[in-house]
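STRUCTURE:
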């Protein structure tokens, strides 16, 4: 289900785009490569986080979003923490209901984005493009699960932590660095079958992972994307991107 030869609308987190209604487009997110140091002492085995109530309301809530006056750190994010568990529970609740706002605390914070991006009006870009794409991708994932989406149960989240890289200032229109990892996997059970979809990009803020691109980093049209759906847990990655 890999789409190739796309006419790309933007590079990484570039300029704003307007969005019509979502359409399901299974796709491996495409991202530009970057040079960055390796993460500190990361295991070669992907980290997993489990969810106990993936189809319903979140049972854990992440800590409050970091205030805009707090600066970035190089703390490496963990994927086995209660906060990450809560974020992924929120993300799955958004997918099974189709309501992206349920996952707002799992999404890269606006206050952090305005510090990261060296572009004109990053706040407007966050609202119109970044979170706009996320809404479309959540709707596409919900549609992909089908009419019985509410019965789909999240089993675990696979994060290829060993492939994470520090993206320094000056790359991808950034003025502040962060940790990035691509191709995490949401592994779920629906109708007795184990399946999975990808999370195109997670990036860090002050030692926490956040979703920044769900279905795709780049897209050829303003439609929702389901990243690399697969039977079974799928394959995390690829590495690279920003």
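SEQUENCE:
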């Amino acid at each position: 289900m890999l789409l190739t030869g796309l006419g790309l609308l933007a590079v990484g987190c570039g300029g704003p785009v307007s969005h019509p209604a979502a359409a399901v487009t299974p796709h491996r997110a495409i991202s530009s490569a970057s040079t960055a140091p390796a993460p500190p002492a990361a295991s070669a085995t992907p980290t997993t986080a489990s969810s106990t109530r993936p189809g319903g309301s979140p049972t854990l809530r992440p800590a409050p979003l970091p205030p805009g006056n707090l600066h970035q750190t190089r703390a490496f994010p963990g994927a086995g923490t209660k906060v990450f568990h809560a974020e992924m529970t929120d993300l799955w609740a958004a997918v099974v209901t189709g309501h992206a706002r349920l996952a707002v605390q799992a999404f890269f914070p606006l206050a952090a984005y305005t510090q990261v991006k060296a572009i004109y009006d990053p706040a407007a870009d966050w609202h119109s493009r970044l979170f706009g794409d996320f809404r479309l991708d959540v709707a596409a994932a919900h549609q992909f699960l089908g009419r019985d989406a509410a019965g789909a149960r999240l089993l675990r989240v696979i994060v290829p932590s060993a492939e994470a890289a520090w993206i320094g200032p000056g790359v991808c229109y950034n003025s502040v660095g962060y940790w990035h990892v691509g191709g995490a996997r949401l592994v779920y059970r629906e109708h007795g079958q184990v399946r999975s979809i990808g999370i195109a990009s997670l990036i860090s803020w002050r030692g926490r992972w956040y979703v920044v691109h769900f279905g795709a980093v780049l897209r050829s049209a303003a439609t929702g994307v389901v990243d690399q759906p697969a039977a079974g847990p799928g394959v995390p990655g690829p590495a690279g991107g920003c």
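REMARK: Residues 26-61+72-231 form one domain.
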